Amino acid sequence: MLIINNLKASIGGKSILKGISLEVKPGEIHAIMGPNGSGKSTLAAVLAGREFVEVTEGTITYLGKNLLDMLPEDRAKEGIFLGFQYPIEIPGVSMVNFMKTAVNEHRKHNGLEPLSASDFLKLMRDKKELVEIDSKLANRSVNEGFSGGEKKKNEIFQMAMLEPKLAILDETDSGLDIDALRIVANGVNKLKHPDNSFIVITHYQRLLDYIIPDVVHVLYDGRIVKTAGKELALELEEKGYDWIKKEIENNVTA
Amino acid sequence: MIVKSEITEKYLELYKNNINKISGISSPFFNSFRATAFEKFNELGIPTKKNEAYKYTNLNIFFDHDYENYFMPVPADFIKAEEFRCEVTDLDAYGIVLLNGFYPTLKEKLRQLPGGVWIGSLNEGEIQFAEKFEKHFGKYAKSETDGLIHLNTSMASDGLFIYIPEGVTMTRPVQVVNLIQSDNDTFNQPRNLIIAEKNSNFSIIICDHTLSPQKFLTNAVTEVFVGENAHFDIIRVQNEHNNACKITNTFIYQKKNSVTSSNNITLHGGLIRNNTYHYLGGEGAESYSYGLFLADKWQHVDNFVNVDHAFPHCTSNQLFKGVLDDMSTGAFNGRILVRPDAQGTLAYQKNNNILLTDDAKMDTKPQLEIFADDVKCSHGATIGQLDDDALFYLQSRGINKREARLMLMFGFAHEVIQNIKIEALCERMDNLVMQRLKGELSRCASCLVKCM
């Protein structure tokens, strides 16, 4: 589904990603872990198409197409979804209007008629139930005045509405209490099926108690320094990131 | 010696040559204000950029022009306007049509609407409600610095009169459609008086439309008295062509525990200047002043707001926003005056503007003068571009950049519009603003008025 090959990227001339290669197959959940400043969020930004990140080398192939040639909105319509670490507040734009526009853009892209008002409202209702989001949130402006937890739940709700093929969740667990964390994780688990994939970016192992990854990568200083199964997350939780840093330093000096 | 500008001289001349004619139309009471006003105008003149309050707005291009009509329409002109009566509104509102700001006086000059409100020509209002008229007329429209108020008082001949008797609650608003139309370049100076007595409740929507391409200049003065415990809302929708200039001077005088709101929505117009004066003249009064403008090409929109807290425990809130495209310019000047006795005042002000191009320009000036100590006041002003993060957020959900920009601008504007309490009008305004943002003619789908 997604093949990243030797990806290098910089922000304002500063090199952040220093050669990342990774492949995500349909139905897989990949966790990307790593200490602060390792480049996790930059990787998410590149995948979603943020302009301030400059790709200097490497390729990203998504469903056989060159992802780097696509506009952010086209990536979304082709099935990529980014769950933001810091969801943006947009006063004056209602959740209903926002989601209706987004859903219908997706439908247009897939050659479908726009949803009728009643079908759309039904879809909203169903998805709200699925992700256990408070009904009232959907009647407000996008993220305006939402608590940290509400914003993250709203990301999962949007993901449920848009049914992406590849969802990238950028530290969706940060700042969540245990109940919100459970709701977010349940949302992901309910939306998971054999054809779609997830990249879960997280600093802590906690989220991975609820979302079981197939593959765990450790990102450090712009490189993937370790890839293993779900047991790697537990090891990181136990020992922290220092042993990995040491291992790398040893390798460099050796 | 002060050298009067040639432009001011022109209007002094106009007054001298026509004062007999004007005085013939109106009553001795109205006429008794003219000489003093004229003297004041003679002293102040047409505001120039040297006048602090007009620093960002150049009125010369509209005042330095020889108009063919300077006075109210003749009866024949009203015939066409009368045809529109009661047909233009599909809001659940009483429809009234004005021509160039004047009430058509062909049939009944003043009428009572179901619900108890009187509406009609100013001169007729004075005849039928002399006592009320004399109590309020000329009492609120005062200025020591702005000559335009006095120019209006000295030469206005008629306008709109609305009387809401004590305790009358109008469940339906009144929608005034003001048609601006003439075969000649025209300078209009309507004079309006609205008296909302104690415990009354009234909303008025005023929609301006230019129907002919001639050059128009309007200098309107509206005095509003809002009695104790009364509720009053005024919403203006300004939709004029680029060769039209509109200056509104609205003075809202409030008594104890009254609640008012003013909302100026400027969709289109060559040069617009809205002067809105709020006087909180009794404890517990609340005043909300809103404004939104969308400008492009060479348009210029200027909102000047003056909120005067004269009594304790009053609340005021100003929210003004502008979206400026092309090489358009705009200005906002919001003054809050808290007098020494006005303890417990709450006064807020916010002005946000979006510049869509490098050539668009906005000047904003908060002016807080606080002479009481137990006061909560805040103000904030921003001038900026659309938020890149918000734009990306929308794009990342599959919404293309053009549509995302529209949504953000719409959301920005909607924050002002959502304060309109009449739901149908709120929706209508949302649609008009969306059409305007898309670059289409902002015209109601069902409207019979084909404005230009």
Q: Can you walk through the features of this model?
A:
By secondary structure, chain A is α/β, with parallel strands linked by helices. Chain A has one domain (2-253): P-loop containing nucleotide triphosphate hydrolases (Rossmann fold). Chain A contains eight helices and twelve strands. In chain A, helix 5 packs parallel to helix 6. The radius of gyration of chain A is 18 Å and the shape is globular. Chain B is an alpha/beta fold and 452 residues long. Chain B has one domain (6-437). Chain B has eleven helices and 20 strands. In chain B, strands 2, 3, 4, 6, 7, 9, 11, 13, 15, 17 and 19 form an eleven-stranded mixed beta sheet that branches. In chain B, a hairpin with a 5-residue loop joins strand 2 (110-112) and strand 3 (118-121). Chain A binds chain B through residues 48-51, 71-73, 75-77, 81-82, 84, 87-88, 90-93, 97-98, 101-102, 105-106, 109, 141-142, 158, 162, and chain B through 387, 389-390, 392-401, 403-404, 407-408, 410-415, 418.
Fold topology:
The complex is a heterodimer of chains A (about 250) and B (about 450).
Chain A: E1 2-11, E2 14-24, E3 29-33, H1 40-48, E4 53-62, E5 65-66, H2 72-77, E6 80-83, E7 90-94, H3 95-109, H4 117-131, E8 141-142, H5 148-162, E9 166-170, H6 178-191, E10 197-202, E11 215-220, E12 223-228, H7 231-239, H8 242-253
Helix pairs in contact in A: 4-5, 5-6
Chain B: H1 6-25, H2 28-31, H3 34-44, H4 60-63, H5 75-83, E1 94-99, E2 110-112, E3 118-121, H6 122-128, H7 130-136, H8 147-155, E4 160-164, E5 174-180, E6 186-188, E7 191-196, E8 201-210, E9 216-226, E10 231-239, E11 244-254, E12 259-268, E13 271-280, E14 286-295, E15 300-309, E16 315-324, E17 329-338, E18 345-355, E19 361-370, E20 375-384, H9 388-395, H10 401-417, H11 423-437
Parallel strand pairs in B: 1-5, 4-7, 5-8, 6-9, 7-9, 8-10, 9-11, 10-12, 11-13, 12-14, 13-15, 14-16, 15-17, 16-18, 17-19, 18-20
Antiparallel strand pairs in B: 2-3, 3-4
Helix pairs in contact in B: 3-8, 6-7, 9-10, 10-11
